[in-house]
Amino acid sequence: MSNILEIKSLNVHFRGNKGIFVAVDDISFEIKKKEKLAIVGESGSGKSVTAMAIMGLLFSNRKAIISGQVIYSGKNIFELSKKELQTLRKSDLSMIFQDPVMSLNPVFTIGQQLVEAYIMSKKQSKKQANDNAVKQLEKVGILDAKNVMHLYPHQLSGGMCQRVMIAIALASNPQLLIADEATTALDVTIQAQILKLLDDLHHREHNSLMFITHDLIVAKLFTDRIIVMNEGRMVESGRSIDVYDNPLHPYTKLLIQAVPTLGKRKRLHSIPKELDSSFDRKQGCQFYERCNFRQSKCLNERPSLRLIDKEHAVACHFCEEIKDGSSNY
Predict the structure, then answer these.
(1) pTM for this prediction
(2) Which is higher by pLDDT, 121 or 236?
């Protein structure tokens, strides 16, 4: 399966009052055509910053220092002009943001915002755009779409607003859709509906999906492959079922152990509080201070992401011991 997007040695740093903050630290991965890829990690791990860098949304941030390459259709997105980047976002790349209510403009109706998306991406007449907007709302499961076109965001529920955001994101028929915590602000029932909707649309449109979440269970059930991030670095990647059922990085294991399981009584493990180390990055493993299995080598030598089994890669000096069950996890 060929790649639709390749990220090579991506770094995103921010200038702050305390110095340089490392948000994304030298990560490389690819997204395959028609693949559903999950980026998993707790808040502050660099997931959303990675997505915004891919979309070219950080160039206007004067505090951002960006390096590396994001290759789409043989071109480095970072080398495109502002006009070329805008064209790319109107056609091939699209993103659903975390808070649907805040993402929609409160002073315009749903119809106005969706029609504008069609006019900008496909250069359609207003009537064509209006007709397609109604059809798109129906595709994302909104009943009485014609009337919803006349409503304002505050008149809709969070789940309805998220469906509208998905409709807007799909207006350009993107080759790659990035969903940034698209279900986090919704209750469990609505989350399941939105996930099913995204899955149905993925199979219908045959596009690629990059799904950002902190929930490993959702990632396992919903996506083909998982990348786990911690403090801006990739620590584990592989097929979703392998990463969840056989985690080989201490951080991934703790993420799974911290998740309650329905119908089972088990002790939940907390993940040690993250230290403010992103301003003073050590040469070794960034998870050193929080890891129960740390050794002197971890402090002095940065572990590289290496292939352990088939497509399963891990950035840990002692992942073989974890795999064999000889670690204390």
Answers:
(1) 0.90
(2) 236
